[in-house]
Specification:
- The complex is a heterodimer.
- Chain A has ten helices and no strands.
- Chain A has helices at about 1-25, 30-35, 60-95, 100-115, 120-125, 130-160, 165-170, 175-210, 220-225, 230-255.
- The longest helix of chain A is centred in the last third of the chain and has 38 residues, at about 175-210.
- Chain A is globular.
- Chain B is mostly helical.
- Chain B is about 70% helix and about 0% strand.
- Chain B is elongated and about 75 Å long.
- The two termini of chain B are about 20 Å apart.
- Classes of the chains: A mainly alpha, B mainly alpha.
- At the A-B interface, helix 1, helix 4, helix 5, helix 6 and helix 8 of A face helix 3, helix 4, helix 8, helix 10 and helix 12 of B.
Chain lengths: ~260, ~270
């Protein structure tokens, strides 16, 4: 019950704040084209649509969201799964077989990938012929993977040096049993929190990736809404995305409690 | 490693600062007889489709990206420090309120928030306004992380035996804050600044790639990278042939990499 209240309050506060900002924005209710004198044609009709209608697409927002949610959901799920699979596997491998040279190589690679803006990762994938939702998922994995690897490796390394792990090793636990029975359960709360953070990051990164790779998802929709100053659409997208992020965070927190 | 990173940053900053002497037109002058030219002695990185010197634009972009991203990081850290110190010093309803605001800001997908706030300002504003808006938004949105760290730092420091002894001896709160608390927090704030500056550089680059960052004719590394879109669709061979267009990417990699190396390892994202 407390969780539901917290969720509702966070959503209400977020929506109220964004709506307030939108309402006080300069030129509220005026289409971007009408603000620009060069494109202000005499035949353009005045827009007076309800708040659940997109000004740019002249369509109910829920229809737009329904059309665009699937590519984003697929890309974000695929990207997160790929990023976590590779990162966790390599973090576990570096805990199981610690090697200074390998660790340094991985660290340099992770740092290089982190220094690239996500949009540029998408552009590079475009250069090599990657297109569509799988390309967004791959770009997400490349952009998120290094961060997940770096933090999960630190979490696992800290857990590996805890007294209960040393005791289990002294008791003769095999390496895989040690990982499955002791290491992962010990690191699970922190890994779950990292999982929630990675969902937030993935949703944010969907904007540049879907835009550049031309995937008609929610990220591209948010970009189109921002370009045309379709503020009702932006506010509702923001509220929807906040809902997803808050639910992911609360799930991680409730499992850890 | 940190020394090399500092040297790289220093060289890039020097190039940015001496840009107005090296290329006085700031990359805005059009050479109509030299449209889309490859590198030459006159134009070391060639010219763009409008006939502007790419090297001059790179230097001009360096001035904007390398000076304003750290300025935005400084703004975020100062805001975070103010809020974090207020929340740390005054436990009670104020601390709860500030913590809740911090939680809310950290929970929101910040690129969506950035896009929403950017869209509140008309897209066709003057280039100088778009420049200020872009970096001010980055600065105003980045306060939550530093605030959380500073709040924890203030609470830890206030519980330390040294500060408890000072307060027991009747030291004035302002003196405790200025003489003891702020010096203790300085390394934390420096670390937060070093962690945020590369994030803001990357965010500006992403906004530039989406056409929502600093607007033309001003140059920033973000909007210079947008030029790559034209060669990206032509495949890897076209990209290799136009290697000089990768110069903004090289500068971005060097500067963000150096900042990540300079940031304390435990707070590097």
């Amino acid at each position: 019950m407390r969780l539901v209240w917290r969720l509702l309050l966070t959503l209400a506060a977020g929506a109220l704040l964004t709506a307030l900002l939108v309402r006080t924005a300069p030129g509220y209710g005026v289409h971007e084209r009408d603000l620009d004198i060069r494109r202000n044609g005499p035949t353009r009709p005045q827009l007076s649509l309800p708040w659940w209608y997109s000004r740019e697409f002249q369509t109910p927002i829920h229809q737009l969201v329904a059309q665009r949610a699937m590519p984003t959901a697929l890309a974000v799920t695929g990207g997160l799964a790929l990023a976590w699979l590779i990162s966790l596997a390599s973090a576990l491998a570096s805990t199981r077989w610690p090697s200074r040279a390998l660790l340094n190589t991985a660290f340099v690679g992770a740092m290089l990938l982190q220094c690239l803006p996500a949009g540029l990762v998408a552009l590079l994938l475009l250069v090599f012929g990657f297109r569509g939702t799988p390309a967004v998922a791959l770009a997400l994995a490349l952009a998120l993977g290094p961060r997940v690897w770096q933090v999960s490796r630190a979490i696992l390394a800290r857990a590996a040096s805890s007294p209960c792990l040393l005791l289990a090793r002294a008791q003769g636990f095999g390496p895989w049993r040690l990982i499955a029975r002791r290491l992962l359960p010990l690191a699970a709360p922190e890994l779950r929190a990292l999982g929630a953070v990675s969902v937030t990051l993935a949703i944010s990164l969907a904007i540049p990736l879907e835009t550049i790779l031309d995937v008609p998802g929610l990220g591209q929709l948010a970009w189109q809404a921002a370009l045309s100053r379709d503020l009702p659409l932006l506010v509702q997208l923001m509220t929807l995305v906040t809902l997803v992020v808050v639910v992911a965070g609360e799930l991680a927190r409730s499992k850890s409690a | 490693m940190k020394f090399a990173a500092a040297i790289v940053l220093l060289l890039l900053s020097l190039a940015a600062l001496t840009g107005p002497w090296i290329a006085p037109d700031g990359g805005q002058m059009q050479f109509r007889d030299h449209i889309n030219e490859p590198p030459s002695p006159q134009f070391p990185l060639g010219t763009d489709p409008l006939g502007r010197d790419r090297f001059a634009r790179l230097l001009s972009g360096a001035r904007i990206s390398l000076l304003l991203a750290p300025a935005a990081a400084l703004l975020a850290v100062l805001l975070g420090a103010l809020i974090g110190i207020a929340a740390g010093l005054r436990p009670g309803w104020l601390a709860h309120l500030l913590s809740a605001a911090c939680d809310l800001t950290l929970a929101l997908p910040w690129f969506f928030l950035l896009l929403t706030l950017r869209a509140l300002i008309p897209i066709d504003v003057a280039p100088a306004v778009s420049l200020l808006v872009t970096f001010a938004l980055l600065g105003l949105l980045g306060w939550a992380g530093p605030a959380r760290v500073v709040q924890a730092g203030v609470q830890d420091t206030l519980r330390s035996p040294r500060i408890l002894a000072l307060r027991a001896r009747g030291a004035a709160p302002l003196r405790v804050l200025t003489r003891h608390l702020l010096p203790e927090l300085a390394p934390l704030l420096a670390g937060q600044f070093l962690a945020l500056a590369p994030v803001f550089l990357l965010a500006e680059a992403n906004l530039g790639l989406l056409g929502l960052g600093v607007s033309e004719p001003m140059a920033s590394w973000g909007n210079l990278l947008k030029e790559l879109e034209s060669v990206a669709v032509a495949g890897p061979a076209a990209l290799v042939q136009s290697w000089w267009m990768l110069a903004p990417l090289a500068c971005l990699l060097l500067s963000t990499g150096s900042l990540f190396i300079l940031a304390p390892r435990e707070i590097t994202p």
